[in-house]
Amino acid sequence: MDSFDIELFRAIISSRSITQASQALLLSQSAISQRLLRLEQELGIKLIDRQKGIRRVEITAQGMRFLELAEKWENSYQEILRLKDTEPDQSLVIASPDSLINFVLGPFLKRLPGLGYFPRLRTQQSLEIYDLVDNKEADVGFVFRDARYVNIVTRSVLREPISMICRPGSPWNEHAVHPQQLRKQDEIYLAWSPTIQQWHDYWWNPSTHPVVHVDTPAALLNYLAPGTWAMCPESVVAAYRDTQEIEIHAFAENPPDRECFLILHKSPGSGRTKMIARFERHLDAFLRTLPYHV
Fold this sequence. Notes:
alpha/beta, Arc Repressor Mutant, subunit A, D-Maltodextrin-Binding Protein, domain 2, 3 domains, five-stranded mixed sheet, four-stranded mixed sheet, 13 strands, elongated
């Protein structure tokens, strides 16, 4: 069987006539009939019903199924022929928390198309990102927790100090504020990382509710009002340091840094290894320009 057999059978079915199929394909009726018979013998099934004295032919149930499968085969074959004209896939799926994309990686991600990549960004939480990389649904992941997965390689790439921020006019005047000076009832809370969460739970009762619990820095800053406060990593603080929108205070008892990890699958798949390695080199060059790179 070849692609012409499929074309021949399609011509017979569309016209319901061997005579009309022979005219469309510029072949004799006998040539059409002989080729159709050889195809049926090769497949071991009857494709059409031929009734003596009736010119119109009817497709059998097996003939219909053959046509469906044959067209799929033909489409796949055409895709194979087009492989030589196809560029290697340079799309890169990057999974990262929102805060890292918007406040750290933004300038780097904007340069990726010029470096030959076609990035697709997915904003997720850390545990979801581990699952995406583990299932090869993402090529690269950035996370704020060091979890252990059999198929994932993890390395630390950033460590950011944490500050306390508030609006101008709030009651904290000292450069360094002690956690005991702060009430959780006045906090705009965002869970920056598990280690910061542990430090936070040491100083404030986990059962006490903050003003609001948010998931993104944009939401945190939207809810921050005079008299409220929040913990914030250096990358977010730096974006507002030269404005009059927030006051920045150190903690008298320092929280742990927010540590960011790059995660990659140990076996990313055919054609992906070199691209991801090249991405890592570009990423490391960018991270070295940041004051809080590892």
